[in-house]
What does this fold into?
Amino acid sequence: MELDPTNQFIKAILKCSNIKDKNILEIGCGSGRITKDLAKYAKSITAIDPDDNSLKIAKENLTSNKITFIKGLGEDLSFLKDKKFDVVIYSLSLHHIPYKAMELSLKQATELLNDNGKLIIIEPDKNGSLIKAEELFNVGDGDETFVKQKAIKAIKSLKNYEVIKKDYFNTLFYFNDEIDFLENMLPDYKTKPNNLISEIKKFLNEHKENDKITLYASRNINILKKLEC
It folds into this structure.
């Protein structure tokens, strides 16, 4: 699987906000895919994620002295209370935080910002062939409609901050073949009913381009800044 081969994530961030020479906190860095691009522009990055394996991969692949990886939960940022950042980025991570803790996480994130600091929240949107596959066949992250709505509500509920810019973009997903898709999106596919696998393969066949399967997912990016008194 090749994710975002045309680098739409970093393009969207750069289009909406200046991150050059900024001290950045990335919440939900995963294996460091977006972290790598951020490091090309940022002064420093503190990248957190709760998953040991993802952090291990990120540390092995990214050795820049600009980056500090920390194991931590997005729903409780109090372990960072002594630090300050110019930018805090949620990399497709807000909707993965337990929904009852989303508002607290955002509040804590704003408390970590310097004066004139910005909050950047990137979330999955509702359109795209990959999202359709997730919802139809319960592959990947499955149907995230509920938690995506909760994330939107949490953003709107954030006090003393306003969305100063919002944009939308699409990211591509390349799969070599059906097996590549199944291994990445449904690892236990060999235990699934044959009729489900047949339906998935039929769906994927409709999205074959140039000897590979091409799917896409829509994303939204919100830039928030503190209200002026």
